[in-house]
Amino acid sequence: MKKLSIVLLVLVMVSALFAQGAKEDASAYKIYLITMDQMDQHWVNVDKGAKDAVAELGGISYRWLAPDVKDDAKQIESINNAVAGGANAILLAANGPNAVTSALREAERAGVKIVYVDSAANYPAVQTLATDNEAAGHTAGMKLRDALESKGVKSGKIGIISVNTATASTVAREAGFRKAFAGTGFTLLETQYADGDAARSKDAGANFITQGVVGLFGANEGSTVGVGNAIAEAGKDVVGVGFDKSDMILSLIKSGHILATMAQNPDVMGYEGVKTAYKALKGETIAASYVDTGVSVLTKANL
User: Fold this and answer.
1) Of the residues 84, 90, 174, 259, which has the fewest C-beta atoms closer than 10 A?
2) E strands of the chain, at which residues?
3) Does residue 3 carry a pLDDT above 50?
């Protein structure tokens, strides 16, 4: 009888522990990261930063949810799935400024906090953590311009390869890049869009090279990889600059096929984005509506 009582006591204690664990899981804040796609290493690094913050803070259930390719309908579906999954907050890198606004409105009605990382939509959010893309694009343009002029090249055609006409971050980069060549003898050709796909960006780069360009600019990771591969394959004396940091881009810089890339801090976006969402969910005041997460110019000299 005594043994039976001990067994029953142990069972009660174990049940209590399970109940406590279930309670803690149920009370954890659910935070989702929704990026434009899963193709770029850039998004992997945003996810890494977010996971670091989750591990540091505790009390958070976290998930990275994203379409396989850049597609407005698929990103809307990801937002809706996060809301259906009980999201308390969403960290979003918007594919475009307007396509997802209705989905975000429904998310907000469900009590979800919105924090933008990398690229914002035209809908209010707790905070935006991103690169000053126009300034960084201008820096890329000046880097290319200086490199060409140091070679004695003060005129010629320059090609730009970007994602699409809707993604606010890359549109701003292009605008800044173009400003760097205002009033010069260089001619900037019509931008070619390849949705950040490296293979299509390479084809666009090859097309520009056949037109006799002296320089190429890639506005994101996939575009930059395409630019570098096109230059490498053509074997032409074309100067390429780009955006973002990945193993492939660093390899292209080391091989001399990309002069420089504007490296963002995606891990900072994810890390600080989770912290902002956590503070907002706890009812704390968020001081800044926009945070510039910075950019570094990477070249062969500083790798």
Assistant:
1) 84
2) 29-34, 60-64, 89-92, 113-117, 127-130, 155-162, 185-188, 192-193, 213-218, 239-243, 260-264, 290-292, 295-299
3) no
Phi, psi of 279, deg, nearest 5: -65, -45
Taking the C-alpha atoms of residue 55 and residue 267, their distance in angstroms, rounded to an integer, is 14
Given this model, what pLDDT does residue 143 score? 98
- Looking at the domain covering 2-131+266-294, what would its CATH class be? alpha beta
Q: Is the pLDDT of residue 28 over 60?
A: yes
CATH code that applies to domain 133-264? 3.40.50.2300
User: How far is residue 277 from each of residues 29, 93, 171, 191, 299, measured CA to CA in Å?
Assistant: 10, 14, 27, 36, 35
39 confidence band (pLDDT: 50, 70, 90)? confident
Q: Which two tokens stand for residue 40?
A: 């770029």
* Cα–Cα distance measured from residue 152 to residue 147, given in angstroms and rounded to the nearest whole number: 9
DSSP 116: E
Residue pair 66/34 in contact by the 8 Å Cβ criterion: yes
Domain map of the chain by residue range? 2-131+266-294, 133-264
2-131+266-294 and 133-264: same fold?
yes
